[in-house]
């Protein structure tokens, strides 16, 4: 799975340009079996916060750039209108859906009754148990140092001091 987001730390955004979208779409790594998803609300940010495109329907260019799934509701709200205005072809939607469902099939998510699958007997109160929450907290704490190093590198590249970033704690 490949993640393409436009957030650099919390509250900091990297602008997306047409060249970025074109380069992403034509890169050699796209010949691999990858699945491109957005950060939550990253697609909405292109219009709402960055003002990169004039109309919300223009944001669907992310599908043309190769994105398969939007974590958020922006595509749900504007894709139909973009197709009606001929800003997006159904071929691009079909490509994204093909990738989405082929990944789900490879994961076995469409193999009959989910409760009869490998992890089908795990119920929500087990997933959210105190033991699992503690394990998630330990994983977060052990990842803070590598993340801080990565953010130092990323933010120094962007000429943004790390001290100006805000970190959100999971617990």
Automatic annotation (TrEMBL):
Protein name, UniProt field: Glucosidase
Family (UniProt): Belongs to the glycosyl hydrolase 3 family.
Superkingdom of origin organism: Eukaryota
Keywords, ordered alphabetically: Hydrolase
GO BP terms in the entry: arabinan catabolic process; xylan catabolic process
Keyword Hydrolase belongs to the record: yes
InterPro entries xrefs: BXL, GH, Glyco_hydro_3_N_sf
GO MF assignments: alpha-L-arabinofuranosidase activity; xylan 1,4-beta-xylosidase activity
Keyword Hydrolase listed: yes
